[in-house]
TrEMBL record:
The keyword Transferase applies. It comes from Serratia oryzae. GO terms for molecular function: pyridoxal phosphate binding; transaminase activity. PANTHER family: PROTEIN RV3402C, TRANSAMINASE. The modification N6-(pyridoxal phosphate)lysine is found at residue 185. GO terms for biological process: polysaccharide biosynthetic process. This is Aminotransferase.
Length: 369
């Protein structure tokens, strides 16, 4: 093996000559942002590709999360998971709300739907679950609880681009779903995100909120934010969309190769996809158990020393970070599964350009121990 670093993920970059005509058209149009023609076109093509009704593009998924909570007029407490990227809970704080953490299922790593009900109080107005590693949450149980208590459900679907659940888009569940188009994601626009909404009225409110609350030249109806996606980002998304099926096929091959090679390694537990869902193979997490000769952190350092940049994702837990650990719901005794998974998880490199010999090198480093 050469000495180049092998990252945990890598963005798909189409040939530059594919992108240049889009840039030329942007220059000719002199329309750089604010719902330009490429922006409108990408929203339409994503609706068709994902099988959803309405898409609102954003400059990033964090702003989309913040706006989604505003659009649903959420107040008080929001039930969520501690096992996520910190943007999930930060969006709650940015809205002046209180996150209430619920433990995860030890097999799916998603919020344990059976524990949600006991976390509901008179101040609870919403549930913000995460489809972790593109694995669907227990959407039926979550929706039943939400209906019984009159709660909104907003899904952080940052990992769930094009995931189908029982034959239909997973993004149709809940009141809203938020996608991330960050460079590390399966589908990216350099930076970007989107909110999936079920009806035109909701989309219009979201679109007003992401543009400072402006509805026309003279009217501002809400304290909105600047969340608009630029024409350059939208154009890149249009180019990406042409290749996304191939990219996901390549990632699936890598996923299957890992599974076949690591299935019998003592002390390594593989993460399994929901049998009722089509994964997008966005991540390949393993759990490094006590029976493995190295600790998780020791394996992480060993791979790093050999130029393999794995990731302890998600570690540390959100609930263990300074701004959250004082919350009553952050107590370790309430989040046993989340703390255990966080201490063992390691995401191995998976991306379209990972060569077979590079993957075999990673596998052999894990097996030789």
């Amino acid at each position: 093996m050469n000495k180049k670093n092998i990252p945990v993920t890598q963005p798909f970059l189409p040939e530059l000559n594919e992108f240049i005509p889009y840039l030329e058209e942007i220059w000719q149009n002199r329309w750089l942002t604010n719902n330009g023609p490429f922006h409108q076109r990408l929203e339409g093509e994503l609706c068709d590709y994902l099988g959803v009704e309405y898409v609102s593009l954003f400059n990033n998924a964090t702003i989309a999360l913040i706006t989604a909570l505003q659009a649903m007029r959420i107040s008080g407490e929001v039930i969520t998971t501690p096992y996520s990227f910190v943007a999930t809970s930060h969006s709650i704080l940015w809205n002046g709300l209180e996150p209430v953490f619920v433990d995860i299922d030890p097999h799916t790593f998603n919020i344990d739907a059976e524990k949600i009900e006991q976390a509901i109080t008179p101040r609870t107005t919403a549930i913000l679950p995460v489809h972790c590693y593109s694995n669907p949450c227990d959407v039926e149980t979550i929706q039943k609880i939400a209906d019984n208590y009159g709660l909104k459900v907003i899904y952080d679907a940052a990992h769930a681009f094009n995931v189908k659940y029982k034959g239909e888009s997973l993004l149709k569940w809940g009141d809203l779903s938020i996608l991330s188009f960050h460079a590390t994601k399966v589908f990216n626009t350099f930076e970007g995100g989107a909110i999936i909404s079920p009806d035109l009225k909701t989309k219009q409110r979201i679109d007003h909120l992401k543009n400072f609350g402006i509805t026309d030249e003279l009217t501002v109806v809400a304290p909105g934010i600047n969340g608009k996606m630029s024409e350059i980002n939208a154009a890149f998304g249009l180019v990406q969309l042409k290749h996304i099926d191939k990219v996901m096929r390549l990632r699936k091959d890598i996923d299957l190769r890992y599974r076949a090679s690591l299935a019998d390694v003592k002390g390594i537990t593989l993460y399994h996809h929901n049998m009722n869902a089509d994964s997008n193979f966005s991540y390949f997490p393993i759990l490094v158990e006590d029976s493995y000769p190295l600790s998780r952190d020791e394996l992480y350092e060993k791979l790093k020393a050999h130029h393999i940049l794995s990731r302890r994702y998600f570690y540390p837990l959100i609930s263990n970070m300074p701004m959250y650990r004082g919350l009553p719901s952050s107590q370790a005794s309430r989040l046993i599964n989340a703390n255990e998974v966080s201490s063992k998880v390691l995401c191995l490199p998976i991306y379209h350009g990972l060569e077979v010999d590079e993957q075999n090198y990673i596998i052999n480093l894990i097996k030789e121990v």
